Amino acid sequence: MSQAARLFHVMMMTLVVVALGGVPLGCAAPRPRATSMVRVPMSYTRSFDAPREQTFRAAAAALETFGYKVTIADPERGVLKTAPKVHRLAVVRISTGGDLVPVSHAFVISVREKEPGRSVVTGYQRTFDSERETTALGEPSEPNVDETWTRLFAEVASNLTR
Question: Closest Cα partner for 43 from 105, 149, 122?
Fold first, then answer.
């Protein structure tokens, strides 16, 4: 291991110990989670000047355009759900080699009729670290989630004009 790599490893370990309040790594107890304050995923909503059925098809096509596999498509209820799609790798535990796990996202979308000829798309993004869902565990949300929804809604609008 190079001297720069050893220095980086020592700095990272020091940061972890400081973050744990000075408790050595081998003795670290799990951080208690507040039971009265459960975070729920932020939902995003946008209205479209199109009937619900047409908007539903446009939303399903937009998800597929972005590489998501639609696992539930119920046009009668207006529900779309996708399988998780890996977006990046993240270090979740500090060790000699660093443990990288895939961070994945999945979408849950509802398409409702607002009024005749107008519809509303509402949804939220689920987050997974490897196989474990972390959506509502109080962990920080992805920094680019607003941009993701902006792009997704733009694709739905584009699909409606075709």
Answer: 122
- Pick the closest to residue 56 from 162, 160, 161 (CA basis): 160
The tokens of 72 are what?
């539930």
Alpha-carbon span 56 to 104, nearest angstrom:
24
pLDDT at 101: 74
d(CA 73, CA 35): 33
Interatomic CA distance for residues 147 and 137, integer angstroms: 22
Tokens standing for residue 71: 């696992």
* Nearest C-alpha neighbor of 83 from the set 108, 100, 102, 65: 108
Residue 140 CB coordination number (10 Å): 8
The band of 145, judged by pLDDT with boundaries at 50, 70 and 90, is confident
- What residues form DSSP beta bridges with 125? 107
* 3-state SS record for 54-88: HHHHHHHHHHHHCCCCEEEEECCCCEEEECCEEEE
